[in-house]
Amino acid sequence: MNGEETVIDYLLLLFRVLVFPGFTFIVLFTMFCDWVERKFEARMQNRMGPTFTGPGGILQPIADFIKLLTKEEITPCETKRNIYRYAPILAFSVLVFALCFLPIDGSSVIPGVSFAGDLIFVMALVSIANFALFLAGWSSSNPYSAVGAARVLTQFLGYDIPLVLLALAPAFLAKSLTISTIVSSQWLPFAILAPWAFVLFVITMQAELEKDPFDVPHAESEVVGGHETEYSGGKLAFLKLARDVQIVFGAGLISVLFLGGANGPVPFGFLPQFWGTLWFVLKVLGIVLVSEYMTVLFARLRIDQVVRANWRIILPLSILSLILTVSLTYWIFPLV
Amino acid sequence: MPKSNIDIVKTLESKLSSKSVQILPGQLGTATVKVAPGDHRDVFRALVDADEYTAISAISGLDLGANLGVYYHVRTSNAFLTIEVEVPKDNPKIQTVNDIAPSATFHELEVSDLIGVVVEGNPRSGHFVLPETWPEGVFPLRKNVNASEVKQNPPLPEEKSDEGKLVKIVIGPQHPALLEPEKFAVLVEGETVKAVQPRIGYVHRGVEKASESRSYLQDVYLVERICGICNSCHATGFVEAVERILKTEVPPRGKYLRTIILEVNRIHSHLLTLGHAGLEIGYETLFQYFWRDREPIMDLQEILTGNRVVSSSLTVGGVRRDLKDTDIPKIRSVLSDLRKRLPFYTELYQNEPSIRARMQNVGTLKREDALKLGVVGPVARGSGVDIDIRKDDPYEAYGEIPFNEIVRSSGDTWARMNVRMDEVEESIKIIEYALDHMPTGAYRVKVPRVVPAGEAIARVEAPRGELFYYVKANGSTMPERVKVRTPTFSNIPAFLKTAIGETIADVPPNFVSLDPCFSCTDR
Questions:
Q1: Per the omega criterion (within 30 degrees of 0), is the bond before B173 cis?
Q2: In terms of DSSP H, where are the helices of B247-366?
Q3: Handedness of CA A104, A107, A112, A118 (dihedral sign)
Q4: C-beta atoms of B504 and A212 within 8 A
Q5: What is the C-alpha separation between A209 and B122, in angstroms, rounded?
Q6: Looking at beta carbons, which residues of chain A come within 8 Å of B169?
Q7: What is the mean pLDDT of residues B435-460?
Q8: Would you tell me how many other CB atoms lie within 10 Å of the CB of residue A93?
Q9: Rounded-to-integer distance, Cα B508 and Cα A257, Å
């Protein structure tokens, strides 16, 4: 290997990490998803949604982000300063890092980082991100934030267990804990082979992402902004962005584990990166729309109802689903 | 439609024969009872024993020169009494009645805050309506006080209170759950509410005092501005009272037009609350749908009165605008469009699982508590208490128009919202009946500017419940005293009672089910 090739390799790596399918793509795609969500929700509710910035208001999320960045930042004096300052950026970067493990264009963002068991690592990153959100609220020293943060923690402690249990179904079917292997073994999406696990995973992800009917930590009529109450300016911008990245990550995880990720129904020989990305994006958008549909359709549950729904319904069902998947593998395996 | 055939005046006469009680039938409601301070407790005891519906509608405080008048306005199942007590101004002490009629608590606080009657035995103390910075010993409703000359104290530093393990979640004065400023400090342990400390008065504008220095015509527009949503109800309450003093009979067409305006007001208010409830339980879609369908009703109000929000269409002696015949088909088509959508909304409120999860068994107010606390309107009717002024004490054209009184018995948030849902349908029926049977002829009569000395009360069923007006005229162009008691003022005790023991998440739906209106409450 000569020097020139090494430089080109490095440049390619940098391009992958920073531009496509890495950081820039992820952030822009997140904002695009945000726009799709807002527009879809608005149309469902007989509203226009964003219209002003860009064609159909498509640039509105970017404008909102920039606007928040330019606003004054206020740090109340009783906050735990360092945690308060770094929790939003921690949540954001952990989630972007987790997204880097998903094969967006057919292979993970940083080539070669995929390792046996990276599924577990990614799930752990999600937990850390949620914990960072809890820290953001807890460090604010505000009663609304405290209640909101306690709700984040309560909810995520409950729903993390079924989420991991349900994520095991595709792992069993693919006989691997490696995300890339799970994707490559889905010539038939696992959503078709194990629909019970898929449906439950989508619902649990809705709770994990704190969207209606499970968005109790954000219940503005009860706890104002929840853990975000004291945040303003750039920190708030990153908290909001972290939440949007979380939604894209959730949808991405569903599409990777159950819908075959970047695999298309028809394989195209040329430009695999382009087609892979297209399929991935379309699947993520589909999941985002389904999740937004649920949001629009239901009222917000109460925290005790959310917790009860988890321990009494979702957890037993996810254990059942795991048992079902394992016991049916004999018939399903030939199809994989 | 009398709910019972208790003759309350006879009962009082027989029970209080030993006391020096003067009963004047036909004045200020069914009768006025004049008693000495102290004896009023016996009157209340007799009333409460005789009739379970006994509740205090309002307490008016009056500056009578050397004395302060304390007028207890009491409603029973089929009558409305005013119990007049006078206390000397230099020693204005009166015993509380809240141990006999718990509905008195808030009213007594208001009287002591605004006119300086010292109520002995009321469990609460301190300013209730006036700000904390208000100077001691200045009572705005007394005649010698000029509100613009009052010097307020500098604001006190906020006290650090120690509630131990309880976390204080302050709802208001600015809070997403409230559309208007009012403060409810909710003490919570974990997620469970242990206590609620109310503080009203953030939007106290002194309308009662201001109306004493304006002419009767100006006052119509002033009282309309007490509440933007039920403005016509306020105007009706005031003009009804003034018309009773003047002994003016409004022409039938005027009465029908007023009825239509009032019912449009009710539909618009109910749709607003039904939508707002969606927002409180995180059901934004419900909110957007209801508010979309509320828009044509606002347009209807514009067709009827010329104004979208504050109608300013009522006046002493009738209404200010006639209804054009060409507008009637427009009104009918708007109403039939709304009627077509109602089954969907009713189905939603009755059966949608997440609405039921959030609203059923939340804020349950038992029937006996509802009676005891003296709640009014849909809150009372949701708890199985069948009070509706339109039926009990018909005003305007309501005596001639058939409609159903919606009563539900479960007493929770869900019942209260469904009462409103069904009342929208009834309101549409009332408007259509009124359009069908609209009398011809004049829609207003001219009235003199000077109102002879006298006093009168008026009760109106506003969208939120019984709205009470007391007007005292002194023979000039301006009223001597105007007392307004708004429905939310009577309904807040229900929230304070039912919120305790439930979770924080139950507070917003419970609260919005009262349809709170704070600009009304504070006046």
A1: yes
A2: 252-280, 284-305, 328-351, 353-359
A3: positive
A4: no
A5: 50
A6: 143-144, 147, 223
A7: 86
A8: 17
A9: 39
Q: Which of residues 259-278 of B touch A (CB under 8 A)?
A: 278
CA distance to A310, B141, B204, B213, per residue, from B146 (Å): 62, 9, 16, 11
User: Among candidates B191, B252, B270, which has minimal Cα distance to B464?
Assistant: B270
Q: Give B34's strand partners.
A: B22, B84
Could you check whether the bond before residue A217 is cis, i.e. omega within 30 degrees of 0? no
Residue found under tokens 């089929």: B78
The residue assigned the tokens 């120690």 is B162
Three-state secondary structure call for residue B455 = strand
State the virtual CA torsion across B94, B99, B104, B109 in degrees, nearest 10: 60
- What's the CATH code, domain B252-303+324-363+387-406+415-444? 1.10.645.10
Residue A307 to chain B, least CA–CA distance (Å) = 13
Task: List the structure tokens of A178.
Answer: 């490696």
Compute, in degrees rounded to 10, the torsion defined by CA atoms A192, A194, A199, A204.
-140
Enclosing domain of residue A117: 3-335
Rg of chain A (C-alpha set): 20
- Assess B355–A contact: CB distance below 8 Å, yes or no: yes
Pairing of strands B314-315, B318-319: antiparallel
Supply angle C-alpha B425, B428, B431, rounded to 5: 155
Q: Rounded distance, CA A121 to CA A113, Å?
A: 12
Mean pLDDT per 10-residue segment, chain A (336 residues): 76 82 87 91 88 87 91 84 87 88 78 78 88 85 82 84 88 84 81 86 87 78 77 87 90 88 71 79 90 87 84 89 83 65
- Give the residue from A210, A222, A223, A292 with the most B CB atoms within 10 Å of its CB, the best one to mutate: A222
Q: For strand B22-25 and strand B31-35, is the pairing parallel, antiparallel, or unpaired? A: antiparallel
For A21, the token pair is: 């399918």
Residues from A in contact with B at Cβ < 8 Å: 41, 44-47, 143-144, 146-147, 212-213, 215-216, 219-224, 296-305
Domain count, chain A: 1
For B212, half-sphere exposure in the C-beta direction (CA atoms, 13 angstrom radius) is 21
Q: Coil, strand, or helix at residue B479? A: strand
- Which segments of A49-142 does DSSP mark as H helices, in order? 60-70, 81-99, 118-138
A224 → closest Cβ in B176, B286, B288 = B176
* Cβ <8 Å between A143 and B168: yes
Phi and psi dihedrals of B79, rounded to 5?
-145, 170
Highest-pLDDT range among A108-112, B6-10, B393-397: B393-397
Cβ of A143 and B169 within 8 Å?
yes
Q: Specify which residues B95 forms β-bridges with.
A: B120
Stretch B133-159: mean pLDDT:
77
pTM for the model? 0.85
Identify the band that residue B1 occupies on the pLDDT scale cut at 50, 70 and 90. Answer: very low
**What average pLDDT score do residues B405-430 get?**
89
Domain spans, chain B:
8-141, 164-202+486-523, 206-249+450-485, 252-303+324-363+387-406+415-444
- String of b and e for A260-287 (b: at least 16 CB within 10 Å)? bbbbbeeeeeeeeeebbbebbbebbbeb
Nearest partner of B486 among B115, B234, B309, judged by Cα: B234
Q: What is residue A63's predicted lDDT score, i.e. its pLDDT? A: 92
Q: B8-141: which CATH topology? A: Beta Polymerase; domain 2 (3.30.460)
List Cα–Cα distances, B426 to A322, B291, B405, in angstroms. 53, 19, 8
Please give the Cα distance from B86 to B107 (Å, whole number): 17
Does the pLDDT of residue B445 top 70, yes or no?
yes
What is the residue-averaged pLDDT of chain B? 83
- ipTM summary value: 0.80
* Residues in chain A closer than 8 A to B294 (CB atoms): none
